[in-house]
Write a structure and sequence with these properties.
The protein has 198 residues and is of the alpha/beta class. It has helices at 7-15, 31-40, 51-60, 96-106, 121-127, 152-161, 182-185, and strands at 21-25, 43-48, 64-66, 81-87, 107-115, 164-173, 176-177, 188-195.
Length: 198
Amino acid sequence: MTLTLRPDLALIADWIPHGSTVLDLGCGDGALLAHLQQEKGCLGYGVEIDDASVLACAQRGVNVIQRDIEAGLGMFRASRFDVVVLSMAIQVTHQTEKVLREMSEVGADGIVSFPNFGHWFHPWSILRGRMPVSREMPYEWYNTPNLHLVTLLDFEDFLAKFGLQITARAFLANGLPVTWLPGLRATQGIYRYRRGVG
């Protein structure tokens, strides 16, 4: 049975070579890993803290470890993965720098996706006196798990700070590619990167 992935996860899956070893942090229900196992012969683990999501992973046949990624990725250092994924979760991390640094220590390539706070709707909403609520950020100001709101340029600067080189980038709005003015028009940014040489 072929799984239908969210558009951002489908794009991420396209970036991951056949037979890769993959670590999916904050893997949710395991849809990405299940797809990679079935369609691309990948092996790997998901890391998830939510009880219901861990159960969903197990039901899909995905190897999952129940753990808070901010507790550290040291248990994976001996495994060394081809790709480490953090999809739509970096904005909810408390120790964002630590998570990004450890991703680059346990994986050759990293892929991160996040909601783009630079999308035109967000400043427009604030100008109207309201905190933005969107499909990618569906929470109200008082119950949001989002701690670190980021724009595309801010994230690119963040990667450069750690000596991480962008090898691919893509931008989506409502699941469709955005090529023109992505900083204002994209609702999601997706980046693939690796540690720079030297």
